[in-house]
Amino acid sequence: MSTTDGVAALAAEGLGKRYKRGWALQNCTFELPRGRVSALVGPNGAGKSTLMALATGLLTPTAGAIRVLGDSPVSSGTHPRLAFLAQDKPLYRGFTVEEMLRAGSALNQEWDHTYARGLVESAGVPFHARISTLSGGQRTRVALAMALGRRPELIVLDEPLADLDPLAREEVMQALMAEVAETGMTVLLSSHVLADLEGICDHLLLLAGGRVRLAGDVEDLLAGHRLMIGPSQGAESRFPDEIVVESRSTQRQATVLVRGHAPAVMPGWEAHEPTLEELAMAHLRSARPAAGQGATAEVAAA
Amino acid sequence: MIWVAWRQQRLQFLVSALLIAAVGAVMVFYRFDAVSFMEDRGIAGCLRIGSDPCTSSAMAALSSEYKTYVSFLPMVLLCLPVLLGMFAGAPLFAREFEQGTHVFGLTQSVGRRRWWATKLLVGGGPVAVLMLFLGVIGVWALKPLNHVTRGPLLTPGFETQGLVLGAYTVLAFAIGVAAGMLFRNTLAAMAITLGLYLVVLLALGGGLRPHYFSPERTTGTVAQSTGESERGGKSWIPDDAWRVGSAYYDDEGRKVSFNPSGCDGTESIQSCLTKQGVRQQAAEYYPATRFWAFQTAESTAFLTVAAALLALSAWSLRRRVL
């Protein structure tokens, strides 16, 4: 285990994973710096879960390499400074919450029992309750406590908010972000709901079709794009192809996301800094295979 | 890790232990019951038909008293290993995969191999030891009933005592574990355990067991080999021996065939043999004293198959966990 502070929390180089049905992840290169809260965004099947499983060592790469805090994952357990919360929050159903915490201490050399107990307590989950009787929100809080009890430097959460009601979403996110603020740990968080991530994430990793489409600091990425809104007539010829990420138009109005700063003053056009959601959605739509692009072209031509 | 594995398997183990203890208690009870019955009849210590007081009529009385028990017990003891394999072995990994908890277990600071080995030892070890113990108790408990079970080498007497009960349990458990690991479905793993266990039991027990060693051979005239009445009911070969082969010879010592269905039922077997031209008969058999050698050989065979299956499950885990 190396804890040299200069090393990225998570880094991939030429990372690829192939299943029988094809490549789930291909030629991924990125670095997640320490202390960042990174949103892992992508459509279903983009390779998000595969990437996370590669980081934990549950899967081994077909190509390239992934490094967790500078180390390659090995089969003798997940990196001691990495905690992983899987999508379905797997916990032993027959155990009580107390027994689950004891399992955490039995399965880890480094385990902060007082801290994990405190997290469960502040979530208001009774210790004697069986895991199978917990609500979705309570279960997530216990699973989160199990992950944080390892005192990780990097915590990886796969869709932690899926199947939670809005109130529980907010509570889980608050609980997580409070610990992040306290410890300064690095977070990699995947979610379908971009609105959940807005204002929380300062780093973005956008996957589509098994490839990294966008990676970097959220502020830099937002500052590096402009959302142009103007009349739809002749919109498609206004911008050079190489800077257009995606353009959409209705009868009257065209919305074009472009890379770089807004082109010189154009009458009738307004330039905005995109929101994280607008930026991500435009990139995801543009990454869709030909059918999607065809549709966009048709709309633009209409 | 040991505590976690134990906590996961606690219920199965307690139920298994209770079941095994109940069967053991019944066997011990019948041992004492049989011993006192034999003392009452003055045949204490009689293992087979022999000289007075172990006469054929006294032993027949013993048989009729205990034949229900002796025919019922094997059904229980033959089922027990496969039941334990189905309920302790099959879900061991299959349920983890079904509920996704292997993702939890394998993302802690415990390596795959240790996770596998600990679950295996905690889930299967105690049950196998208990079954081995039950088998050893069985040897002691069934001893007075040696005549009723027709000796310790014949089916089902052989399968229901001694070392093999432990070995059968290990095999059934290993089939359950390997099937659960490969198919990741508890129900499928349980069905495969039942099916595959029966196949191996029949193939090894039925097909291979007579060939573990070479049998003893004895040859005699038709009169020698069939004259049980002259010997007070004593068979030509010990009646608790396991007869595995017969051969028939004519006057000139040539091998002939004998067709038992050619006998009309009213004549003695001796006259029927003579009528079909048989003058001499040879028998191949294993005496009951070979019991422990057979037990060791059969246990080794079963444990070898079990080890191969466990290796298969280890390979499967190494190759793929998601």
From TrEMBL, chain A:
GO terms for molecular function: ATP binding. Pfam families: ABC_tran (PF00005). It comes from Streptomyces bambusae. Keywords: ATP-binding, Nucleotide-binding, Transport. The keyword Calcium does not apply. It comes from the Bacteria. InterPro entries: AAA+_ATPase, ABC_transporter-like_ATP-bd, ABC_transporter-like_CS, ABC_Transporter_VariousFunc, P-loop_NTPase. Residues 10-234 form the ABC transporter domain. This is ATP-binding cassette domain-containing protein.
UniProtKB/TrEMBL annotation, chain B:
Keywords: Membrane, Transmembrane, Transmembrane helix. The keyword Transmembrane helix applies. The keyword Transmembrane applies. It comes from the Bacteria. The chain crosses the membrane at residues 12-32, 72-94, 115-142, 162-183, 190-208, 299-317. This is ABC transporter permease subunit. It comes from Streptomyces bambusae.
